[in-house]
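Researcher: Last one for today. Full complex below.
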Amino acid sequence: MDWTRIIVNALEASVGLQTVVFALAAIGLNVHFGYTGLLNFGQSGFLAVAAYGMAVTVSSFDLPLWLGIIIGLAAAVLLALLLGIPTLRLRADYLAIVTIASAEIIRLTVRSVTFQDTFGGSDGRQAFAGDFYAINPFPIGNYNIGSFGFSERQMWVLSVGWSLVALSCLIVFLLMRSPWGRVLKAIREDEDAVRSLGKNVYAYKMQSLVIGGVLGCLGGFIYGLGQASIQPDIFGTDTTFFAYTILILGGAARVAAPVVGAAIFWVLLSLTDNILNEAINAGYVSNSVINSTQVGQFRFMLVGLLLMLLMIFRPQGIFGDRREIALDAR
Amino acid sequence: MRTRVALFLATLLSAFVVVLGMGAGPASADGESIFGFLFQIKKSERVAYEGVKVQVKGPGGFSQSTTSDKTGRWTVEVPGKGTYTVTVDDKTLPKNVNLRDPSKKSLKVPVLVGQDKPVLFPLGKSTRKITSKWNQAAQLTAEGLRFGLIVALAAVGLSLIFGTTGLTNFAHGELVTFGAMTTWWVSTGKVPFLPDFGGLQFFPAAIIALLLCGAFGWANDAGLWKPLRRRGTGLIAAMIVSIGLGIFLRYFFLYLFSGVTRSYPDYRGAKGIDFGPISLAAVDYWSMAVAVIVLAATILALVRTRIGKATRAVADNPALAAASGIDVDRVIRVVWVVGAMLAGLAGVLLGLAQGVNFQMGFQILLLIFAAVTLGGLGTAYGALVGSIVVGMFISVITLWVPVELKNIGALGILIVILLVRPQGILGRAQRVG
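Model: Here's the assembly. Have a good evening.
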């Protein structure tokens, strides 16, 4: 077993692309679920419209990247409005079903052969990140401390990504300290009480949905730019539920929780993947029990189990406060 | 040897004109080329067509024509990798020889670096059936009814569980998969962790699978949901737990079953039986019959039997039901066992229709939700009606929209229904907050 490599991989995962992407997605969810109590099960849809908005603008229509990013952001806002206008008056579990269905509609549309010329079918879109790497300030080379490190492209996308994470956290922190944020939390606790105080609950919920959607969709941009390609199936329901697991692991309704949650989550997955793989290669685990293609399946089983156990035994996660979690249907 | 292999394959594809043979002819040394043979197998004799014109167009305005030689072979050297359009001029084909699919006389082919790309133009009688829109609609309605009945089995279970416990069970799809997979395991004898016992006939296998499904439903309630109810876990927390359970089970099934789609050993490639314009396999007819009988029995049991009445009482008001002497936990246990068996049966029938794989249940989960919501959450009859509507709808709309987009239609009506009539067709308005 090569423990150095296992540990280096885990360290890289703690600050790597997936951590950034899911931290952003979970920060958005935190605004929805953690602070407002909205059960949005379609977060992957926000990531998808942003990533596709950007990629399609550049690779299908040959327009500049900055315009693609604006279109992606606009698409996320539009999606939030489309979802919110009709559904925010519905009960929590109805909202959940509508949002998950919408995210699936988006995924099925972009992966269809019918719209292949625009969205690229199941292969997705490539060759749209050129402008982004053209302004990379990091000179070509590897930025390593020992064997831990990244290439100049990774350095660039990770710096941008972590800056966005920091900025998003700051925004959430400031928003939730403001009177506006206190109304959101009050809606989570007791919607009717807020309404009786003359607040327009519907408008607040809509604002929360838009802000959370836009923060979450940044993850879609970073994913697309980091991979320099996007495929429809990375925006499946599993992505949303990964983000939920991360949020609940960190602790809903805490500013830094999604970031810490994402780092712990991906370190955990990296450790299990690598330790299992090394154990298989070293012959400690028989191939009849598990082979290397099945390692990825263990990752998902682990996530499912983690989500269940967290929800049952520690719904407040690491940092949260149990009294602050919106878990009762209303 | 290669030619013989080529001829053997061609015989298999009898009456095709096939372009065969990676390297069956002299390939250019390094450049790329596109080539093919135009011939047909008649009575296991190979008839080649000479002098047929083929045109290749490509990037950068590349365009070159060629004609086939005595062996039916044509070759075009192309300038490099890229996507080329190959068109066969069907007017230069001999009379009474046609493309099997006349709409496919132009093909787009990608050519890789250094590749000699074979291109296939099947020749022979046209195999495309022309059916009228009405006949197609009848066929699609029948297929939709079959699918709707399968969805109904799962939806009734989901609806009963929701009605009695308030749980929106995101792991319900996995109960469907479990039914299909255990049937496959028992009927092939390849049960994981057990020695191979050779397998049973389909019917006993399905019955054993359904019993296992019932046990699985019992275990779900006894091991997870009842303790959670005791702790007073909120409905949303329980829903998220069911999501976690669903993910865990789905990938556990993938681990046990691997990612392939398999069909039951007794039912492979069944023939269609025509019934007017409708052509379904015999197994489709009796799977519809089984679904109808089981659904009717379930509804009857809900209306007539003591436990059925108790179930409806619990769904209406658990506290009042408990106060009037109904053992609520027992009712819920029965609902879980029955719901899991119904879902399992849906899985068995779905496996007959489309094969068994690890995410078959998850793939129809949102359709089940759509059906349940359409009919009205928590009502068993509503779930039944909603399922049949959803099943037929997604089947019939394929007349106008591509098949791959049909599920979008179903999810679309799910959303529309939640917006305009959230209580569903048969639901009562006060259920919705």
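Residues 66 and 172 of chain A are 25 Å apart (CA to CA). Chain A touches chain B through 47 residues (CB under 8 Å).
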